[in-house]
Design brief:
Layout: E1 10-13, H1 17-28, E2 33-36, H2 41-45, E3 52-53, H3 55-64, H4 68-73, E4 75-77, E5 80-84, E6 87-91, H5 93-97, E7 101-103, H6 106-119, E8 124-125, E9 129-134, E10 142-147, E11 150-155, E12 158-161, H7 168-171, E13 179-194, E14 204-206, E15 213-217, E16 223-229, H8 240-249, H9 253-256, E17 264-278, E18 281-282, E19 285-287, E20 293-294, H10 302-321, H11 326-353, H12 360-376, H13 378-389
Parallel strand pairs: 1-2, 1-12, 2-8, 5-14, 12-19
Antiparallel strand pairs: 3-7, 4-7, 5-6, 9-10, 10-11, 13-16, 13-17, 14-15, 15-16, 17-20, 18-19
Helix pairs in contact: 1-3, 1-6, 1-10, 10-11, 12-13
The structure holds flavin-adenine dinucleotide.
């Protein structure tokens, strides 16, 4: 990278999918950005996270000009299986909605966006330390940080807070200006990534008396599996063999018999949380993605919501530079409409599929009755399918 600019139009804090995609979309609109990331590129690429893209996210990656590999290697999925009582029931997304989702790992999306940004020569500062944001309640915001022992300050028109749940941007907003809505679930997901073919060509979501399980994949040769675990569990205490045995216990015997096991490439436990911070704009600071909201991963919405936010943000910023601030003023409200719909679906699907310590026998019967209702009702399946394939940008 050349020298670090002292002024730009938009400083983007965070080079996860939100920050990178926003940078690519703004570049298409001719808007200058500087991207600041506290970690190294390898660290960012090493995080194993989401894997299911809605059409809205695919369309935005098309618009950003970074979807060549996604279209060549992504796996279009027209449905998924709900599994309970040892039976699999297919939810036919394509028949019910006319839409599909695409399985393509977040790591690969990030890799493609990083490569495109480097190729375009756009300024990106990895391992930026002590990032702090200032004066975003005026029309002359500033961002300060240090890099390789040197202090830097960048003057800008806008700051995009794409720095995830633990980032500095939301934390810099006065507490009294924020409304926080949060639910922490009493369990987590133990995930295992392995270079083995997936057990099924589509995802399987399993409700089982021992807890939830998910059979997912990143490609035709790389599988991602999850089992629900208690919050007290430590990943170090789970050998690969323990994981495979537990996964198989939660699947119908004929499906379990088809699971190809192998050594893990990665294994981790993710806590589950629903979280929304309102509003998503404070003067010249806009929050996007996990910096503003978190969903439990059950509905595969986190990455897609992040893409939706930055899709909208790129449009309202482009409108601003063409002379209209109206879009900026409506950014938060328009995002939050989509966010709350996805929050509802992710919370509902999580509640339907997991074992809750305080559910009791009645709660379990209710789950079971609801699952029975879903598989017997076209209307219920359509509602799930519409939510799963996602909402338009709005
Ligand atoms: C363990 C895990 C598993 C997940 N699984 C799924 C899934 O299966 N399906 C799904 O849809 N979603 C999943 N998600 C959610 C999905 O990955 C996120 O919604 C998505 O990463 C959001 O992208 P983002 O760019 O907004 O935030 P992030 O990906 O968190 O990126 C934020 C970036 O900002 C950087 N940053 C933070 N603080 C600073 C700072 N002070 N200065 C500079 N940079 C900073 C971070 O290093 C990071 O690179 C998962 C999330 C986690 C944590």
């Amino acid at each position: 990278m050349g020298g670090i600019p002292k002024r730009t139009q938009v400083v983007i804090v965070g080079a996860g999918p939100s920050g990178l995609l926003l940078g690519a979309l703004l570049h298409r609109h001719g808007i200058d950005t500087v991207l600041l990331e506290q970690r190294s590129p390898d660290y960012v690429l090493g995080r194993i996270r989401a894997g299911v893209l809605e059409q809205v996210a695919v369309d935005l990656l098309d618009e950003a000009g970074v979807s060549r590999r996604l279209h060549a290697e992504g796996l279009p999925h027209g449905g998924f299986d709900l599994c309970f009582d040892g039976q699999r029931h297919r939810i036919d997304l394509h028949r019910l909605t006319g839409k599909r989702v695409t399985v393509y790992g977040q790591t690969e999306v990030t890799r493609d966006l990083m490569a495109a940004r480097a190729e375009a020569g756009l300024p990106t500062v990895y391992e930026a330390e002590q990032v702090s944001i200032h004066d975003f309640d005026t029309d002359r915001p500033r961002v300060c940080f240090s890099h390789q022992g040197q202090a830097h300050e960048i003057a800008c028109d806008f700051i995009a807070g794409c720095d995830g749940f633990h980032g500095v941007c939301r934390a810099s907003v006065p507490t009294a200006a924020l409304h926080i809505f949060e639910k922490v679930y009493p369990f987590g997901w133990l995930g295992l990534l392995a270079d083995v073919p997936p057990v099924s060509h589509e995802l399987i979501y399993a409700n089982h008396e021992r807890g939830f399980a998910l059979c997912s994949m990143r490609s035709a040769t790389r599988s991602r599996y999850y089992v629900q675990v208690g919050l007290e569990q430590q990943v170090e205490n789970w050998s690969d063999d323990d994981f495979w045995a537990e996964l198989k216990r939660r699947l119908p015997p004929e499906t379990a018999a088809q699971v190809t096991t192998g050594p893990s490439i990665e294994k981790s436990i993710a806590p589950l949380r629903s979280f929304v911070a309102e509003p998503m704009r404070f003067g010249r600071l806009m929050l996007a993605g996990d910096a503003a909201h978190i969903v439990p991963p059950t509905g595969a919405k986190g990455l897609n919501l992040a893409a939706g936010d930055v899709g909208l943000l790129s449009r309202v910023l482009a409108e601003f530079y063409r002379g209209s601030a109206a879009g900026i003023d409506s950014y938060s409200e328009r995002c939050l409409k989509r966010v709350w719909k996805a929050e509802r679906f992710s919370w509902w699907f999580t509640s339907l599929m997991h074992r809750f310590p305080d559910h009791g026998a009645f709660g379990q019967r209710m789950q079971h009755a609801e699952l029975e209702y879903i598989v017997s009702s076209e209307a219920a399946q359509t509602a799930i399918a519409e939510n799963y394939v996602g909402l338009p940008l709005g």
